[in-house]
Structure formats: C-alpha cells, structure tokens
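To whoever is covering the structure queue this week,

Two jobs came back overnight. Logging them here so there's a record in the thread.

Job A:
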Amino acid sequence: MTERLASRIGRRGAALLFFTLLDTVYCIGLLTAPEPLVPFYAWMAEIAPLGVWAVGWGGVGLVCLVYAFRTYDTMAFMAAVALKVAWGMLSLFGWLAGQVDRGYVSAVIWLGFAAFVFLIAGGIPAAPTRPAGRRWAWTRS
C-alpha cells in the first residue's frame, strides 16, 4: 500500500506535501504569535492583520495538499511560489525601508524557498509534460 501511494504521489506530490506542512505550520505560527510581536510581524500586521496573512498561508497549504494527489499540479506550485516570493519581497522591502531589522535574512530564506519550489516544479510548465494519470517516478531525473 505504501509503495502504491508513493508511486501515485511521486516526487512532485511529495514536495507538495512538504509545502503543505511548511505553510500550515507558518499559518499556525501567525495565528498564535505572542505579544509583543517581533518587529517583522508587527510591520506585517500594519499592512494586514496577521489573521489575514495566516489565511493566505493556510490556503496555499490546503491547495498544496489537494494537488499533491492530482496529476496536474501546476496551480499548487504556482501558489507556493507566489506566496513565498511575496513574503520574501515584503521582508526585503521592510528591511530596505528600515522597518524590519535583519529583514534581509527572511528575504533570503523565503526567496530561496521560492526558487526551490520553482526548480522542483521544473519551471512550472504551462502544459502537462507527462502522460495523463501518472506521476513522475521517484527515480526520474
């Protein structure tokens, strides 16, 4: 059963399950952020309440979960990349504006994750590049 599930999910699906976990944990972290907020969260809360940001992270996590089991998963990878680019860019802008001390660290981490997602997705192809109904094999490079 485990082997069958692994072959159904494949590498891309496994990556989406990882992003589901990452985005869900970040969502929970935003919802449970203790007061006083760290400077970056305080700055982000000025742009939009942390609950709104949490919905974004949780929503992308849910999209990644659903698409981890689907053959055509481009939407999930696009959502995962977009969220991480947005979060990274906001970190960078906060740092450049002098509002977020060491915002460049968060920017590098989140933009690095965005690049990682993009690479796993193979550049997020617009059209399917594999046979319908099958995921990529674990050993395919």
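Job B:
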Amino acid sequence: MGDITFSSSKLGTKEYWDSTYKKELTNYQETKDIGEVWFGHNCVSRIVTWLKSNTLVDFTGSILDIGCGNGFLLLELASQGYKDLKGIDYSEDAINLAKSIAKDEKHDIKYEVVDVLTPHLSPSNHYDVCLDKGTFDAISLSPSETEVKKEIYVQNVHSFLKVGGIFILASCNWTEDEVKEQFKKGFLLLERIPTPTFTFGGVQGNRETILVLQKT
C-alpha cells in the first residue's frame, strides 16, 4: 500500500471515541439528542440517494456500516425501506447509543461491538454493501502503526463483502487518486458521487470525497 501519511490526531485514538460516545450516550439518555452527525446530513443524503437510484443494490440487500457511531446513516436507510442493516463500531458506548436510538425510532437495525482493525477478522456474514463515513479517515490519523492499520482495514473490508459487493467510502482527507491507491488490491473504482466544490488560490477542490468501489 502506498505510504501516504497524515499528522496524527486524537481523532485516531479509541480513547477519544470512547470518551466522546460516553458523553453522547449520557446526553441522549437525558435529552434524546442523538449527537453529532459525522460529515453532516448532506453527506448522508448523497449516499442514500445513490443507493436508491442504483440497480446494483435493492431494498433487500445486506448493508454494513463500518464505524457506525450513533447509527444515523443506518437510521436514514431504514426510514427509506432498507431492511437488512447492521452497524459495527469498536466503541461499546457508540453501539449502546445506536441501539437506544434505533429502539426509540422503532427501527430493526442490528449492532455489534467489533474492532475492524483486528487482523484476519472473520465476518459472521458477507454483505452486498459496506459503508464508511469517516472511519478510514480516523484510522489514517492514528498515532502509531498507521500503515499496518490501514492494510488490515482494507483486507477486512474486502473480506466483509460478497464478490461484486459495493463499498462506499466518504472521506475529507483522501483524494480520489489516493483512495484508488490505498484500495488497489481487490477493489475497482466504479463511480464518484458528486460533492460540493470550492476554490482557493485559483485551485478547485472538494470538501469531501465519496467514492463507490466494487470488490473484484
């Protein structure tokens, strides 16, 4: 895998996310505020819209959200009629929060505490679609063994998917070419989901990149 690195950040540590979701779980229990929607509602809408408009995936397809956090993306999919939904996260409080929200919203979504950075992780199921809204970004900010963790992540995502399965990755750190390099083993880029652009210093860029890859 290409050696592309970023400065480390607390966002790349499990301690940060455990602390964050412990607070958000307590807050939800007191106020019913679901907390931050990572990447925002517009990013979620773009992913959901693409899935609904694409013939590669139907409403009965199995969908796994990797690093699901509070489960907002899965809640949106459930509200649109998708049935076979599961979220995993390495933070137990994130999973407890997601379970509580889904129960209150009366959606049947499965959640499980799983560390996607466990080497050679054996999935309990193989999925038609895997989703990542910021998880690979967080891994890329890890303060230690970043390249090893990225390699494990790519291998595990590949093992989660059925042959021909779809992987949708949303990132604010990685460009399209960089993602293609990171996922060149076992994945083919199918499509880039349009996102807003900005211009700075005469150069145009995107605030986020959302790519659709397919397991080969």
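Note for Job B: The CA atoms of residues 52 and 58 lie 8 Å apart.

Please reply-all if you pick these up so we don't duplicate work.
Q.
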